[in-house]
Amino acid sequence: MTDPSTDATTYDGKSCFVCGPENPISLGVKFRLEDDICKAEFTPEKYHSGWDGVTHGGIIFSVLDDVMANWIYLNGMKGYTAKCDVRFRNPLPTGCKVLLEGTRIKQRRNMVVLEGKVIRADNQELIADCQASFMLAD
Predict the structure, then answer these.
(1) Who's near 83: CB < 8 A, 6+ residues apart?
(2) Confidence (pTM)
(3) CATH architecture of 32-136
(4) If you average pLDDT over residues 2-17, what whole number do you get?
(5) Which long-range contacts (C-beta less than 8 Å, at least 24 apart) are formed by 34-37?
């Protein structure tokens, strides 16, 4: 019997690290589409830190990548990250709620370019932003 977690033909995202409901270590982020912007909220916990109570950059990148990927998914498409340029602007203390936003910049036949943002909920400070290209799948 094939293990569904390793079979690309049956993978449906339920084990996703950021949003997968069947992943016991998932970050539990729930995405929604509002006015063509993918949105979500996330609060990093102390075990998401990299150094001195600051959220690890890999966690920040993961939620950025997923808010853009979920824009694609919520618009009825399937895609994969091809390239991503991230700019970390401010440290994010653990325990601090952030707002996530993913917006389409442009789209061609089999490629979509999106922008992602992580914004502190309490003071609207930009934590990180990025621009990424995603290859669209059939």
Answers:
(1) 132, 133
(2) 0.89
(3) Roll (3.10)
(4) 59
(5) 36/103, 36/104, 37/71, 37/101, 37/102, 37/103
